[in-house]
Design goal:
Elements: H1 2-17, E1 22-25, H2 33-39, E2 45-48, E3 51-53, E4 57-58, E5 65-68, E6 75-78, E7 87-88, E8 98-100, E9 103-105, E10 120-122, E11 128-131, E12 134-136, E13 139-140, E14 148-150, E15 160-163, E16 166-172, E17 179-181, E18 188-191, E19 194-199, E20 205-207, E21 218-221, E22 224-228, E23 235-237, E24 240-244, E25 247-249, E26 264-266, E27 273-277, E28 280-282, E29 289-290, E30 298-307, E31 314-315, E32 319-326, H3 342-348, E33 367-372, E34 375-380, H4 381-386, E35 390-394, H5 419-427
Parallel strand pairs: 1-2, 2-5, 3-6, 4-7, 5-8, 6-9, 7-10, 8-11, 9-12, 10-14, 11-15, 12-16, 13-16, 14-17, 15-18, 16-19, 17-20, 18-21, 19-22, 20-23, 21-24, 22-25, 23-26, 24-27, 25-28, 26-29, 27-30, 28-30, 29-31, 30-32
Antiparallel strand pairs: 33-34, 33-35
Length: 433
Amino acid sequence: MFKTIIMAAFTVSVALTAVGETFTVPSGKTQTIQSAIDIAADGDEILVLPGTYLEHINYGGKTLVIKSAEGPESTIIDGQNNAPTVVLTSGGELPGTSLDGFTIRNGKNGGGQNEFGGGVHVVSDASFQIDNCIIQNCTASDSSGAGVYVKPASIEDRVFGMRNTTIKDSTATHWGGLITIEASSTDTLIEGCFFSNGHSWNGSLYIGDVGDVGAEIVTFLHCTFYDCDGSKFGTLVHGAAIFDGCVFEESHASGYNGWTGDAIAGGWFDWSDISIMNCVFLNNGGPVVSNEGAADDTGSVADSLFCSNGTPNINGNWSVENVQELESCPEFIDCNEDGIADWIQVVTHPEMDTNNNGIPDDCEVLLGACCINGYAIELPQNDCDYVSGEFMGDGTDPTDVTCSLVCSEDVNGDGLVNVSDIMAVLDVWGACP
């Protein structure tokens, strides 16, 4: 009996820790990505070698990881401007399902308002993660979400997320020229993404309201929105959204019955809720952010900077705290040579400017007390190390530290210079080892 229990426990342990199979495309029977999906099972991985794949793929309800071997620049899935959407889910895909490292281009929806998305379409009961992708040149005719369309959740634990992904140069007729997220049943994180040159009637980005099982918060963390236009709005939010550490640039919209938001517009429903923090808005039309069309919206703008925009920068009912509004933007200085203006970095990444002086910490030469032969002088740590000094810490004042006196004549280190030191030298008299 005891042996049976042990064997049963071992069997369960093996089952829980088993690693899925990996299929390589192209190889053997898997010359296309879809052929690998067809023979794969839940938990498997499909590794795609560099190349351009002229196909449309459907996960078919399977929980799979599909990733490129060498990244999106060399691994392309091309929809050739033919329907249906380039990447589809069928429903039943569980958390852990992902697409990683591809360019998805020339996607087109099937036409009609029930055929959403041109690049990627996530159905209501599918979980999906998009990482390290480029989605471009997609269309959603008479529809929404040309680059990515996420349908309202119909199950409690549906998960969607996206990291380090670019969506650009795409157009939808109705909502979300670049991306539409209708509603999710769990919080959604969109991190480190770049959105550019999207167009639609109701904004380049659209965040929906309530799905079948309610809607949670969509968070955009350290994302950039460039030239995100709409006939009415730049980004339209009907649900709950957080924009943290984001940059909005060159977005323009015509508005609707006097209500607009060239960068961000709040929706007209009572449950629309927008929080903006550590963001930069530059060279946008005005009003830049607005929730004036909402029935009873709540929204907040904090620790953000507006410059060289149309007016007003903030329109409607917002809680505003520590916001700078400048007629022109600060000078472009890039002290750490990463291609990003220092003033943008310190607003969107406040952790990079711990002393709050407007300069990234890694650009500052931090001085401190350096003890050399019993005396303290002010030096950068690197210089102190170079002269074999003892660095007492960034910001330390030489007048406030006590340096221990180093006496080179005290050979045996007993604090005295006497005959013992002479004897120690005589003990090793001769050539140095």
